[in-house]
Amino acid sequence: MKAFLAACVALTVIAVCAAVVLDRVNEPVDEAFTSATSVRI
Amino acid sequence: MQAFCVAARIALGALVLAFFLSLTLPALAQQNAPVDPQASVQSEESLLQQFPRIEGIIDQPNLRESVLIQPDGRIWDHFHEVTLRWIGALAILGTLALLTGAYLLLGRMRISAGRSGISILRFTSFERFAHWLTAVSFVILGLTGLNITFGKILLLPLIGPEAFSAFSQYAKYVHNYLSFSFVFGLAIIIAMWMKDNIPEKADIEWFRQGGGFVKSRHAPARRFNAGEKLVFWGALGAGLAVAVSGYLLLFPFYVTNIFGMQIAQGAHGIVALLFVAIILGHIYIGTLGMEGAFEAMGTGEVDINWAKEHHGLWLADEIAKGRVSNQQAGATPAE
User: Fold this and answer.
1) Banded pLDDT at B301 (limits 50, 70, 90)
2) How far apart are the CA of B333 and the nearest CA of chain A, in angstroms?
């Protein structure tokens, strides 16, 4: 049971760390719409 | 007269040339003529086939943004919306039907000699930690992944579009972020247990003796039996495949283009669904299917009579290493 709970805590920590790191790597989609350059299709 | 003949030959030659040109020109014209998008008889498909992609012109440095429609995406869309669902339904429902049949026909596999009341250590705390880290991650990844494939037809009608949209958005985040704990856990498992999962001669004998399902026969096994080894190597192969294909999708355009990602998505979906089917069998054997099996991952200890029945060679190894005394190993049934 302790091993199971420790695993749950560990996967939560890993997931949160991954979220923080990935959020820094990826630019939010809003950036595309607030760009100063124009878009013509 | 001679001049008339020359003129007649020229006129005849011109007529023949004109005749052949009249045969070939319409075909050439048909090939090169652009499709009139206003014509009522043009199908959408024929319009899309005019170009590999329907592209525009943009000022952004990222030129792939100029692709408006990729007709090949329709093949992928059909695969994702139809084919993959059939593969998944057959794999998962088929496995569930097989396991239900096995339970109804064979029942729960009991420890023949009964419980001895003496337990021996099968998995250390760290081994169980790595197993549960991978297992819990896998279950959540499986459920959130199944929502991507089946959510629209199963969950959406039940909870409505707004709730489904919110749930799916967060489920996808969870799917992305938990992939790291799954891969981390899988890497530890591979490093810990690979040496115990190398195929050997006893595995052939294990299959010959019915893999422990025939009570009158004894199927020899060391720490992991041949069935567990199949699950190990299956999990290793499928885990690597879903990890590689998943990270290609998680980091779009870093390694491959849209076509590559469509292939990766197809492979990810198929392998993941088969992986779920394999693990359903693993969960069944470890819980409902076999008495005494869950304790190995629950407390880490198993009854010595269970070890004798299912992992006799491993028990002999443990005695030889001095981890289990002969007195323990000779335990008699409690009954």
Assistant:
1) very high
2) 27
For residue B133, give the nearest of A7, A37, A41 by CB distance. Answer: A7
How much is the average pLDDT of B44-59?
65
Q: Looking at the domain assignment, is residue B110 inside a domain?
A: yes
> For the domain that residue B89 is a member of, what is the CATH number?
1.20.950.20
Measured distance CA(B275)–CA(B273) in Å, rounded? 5
d(CA B118, CA B334): 10
Task: Give contacts of A28 with chain B, Cβ < 8 Å.
Answer: none
Structure tokens at B301: 């200890």
Domain of residue B316 covers: 73-123+194-329
| CB contact set of B122 (below 8 Å; sequence gap of 6+) | B296, B300, B301, B302, B307
pTM of the predicted protein model: 0.78
Q: Is B60 exposed, middle or buried (0-12, 13-18, 19+ CB in 10 A)?
A: middle
Q: How far is CA B185 from CA A11, B83, B150, B189, B312, in A?
A: 9, 31, 27, 6, 28
Beta-strand ranges (E) seen in chain B are: 54-55, 67-69, 119-121, 301-303
Name the token pair of A19.
């979220």
Q: Which residues pair with B69 in a beta bridge?
A: B54
- Taking an 8 Å cut-off on Cβ atoms, the answer to whether B181 and A11 are in contact is yes
Instruction: Classify burial at A14, counting beta carbons within 10 Å of its beta carbon; exposed 0-12, middle 13-18, buried 19 or more.
Output: buried
Do the Cβ atoms of B177 and A10 come within 8 Å? no
**How many domains are there within chain B?**
1
**Chain B neighbors of A39, CB-CB under 8 A:** 58-60
State pLDDT tens for residues B1-23.
566 666 666 766 666 666 555 55
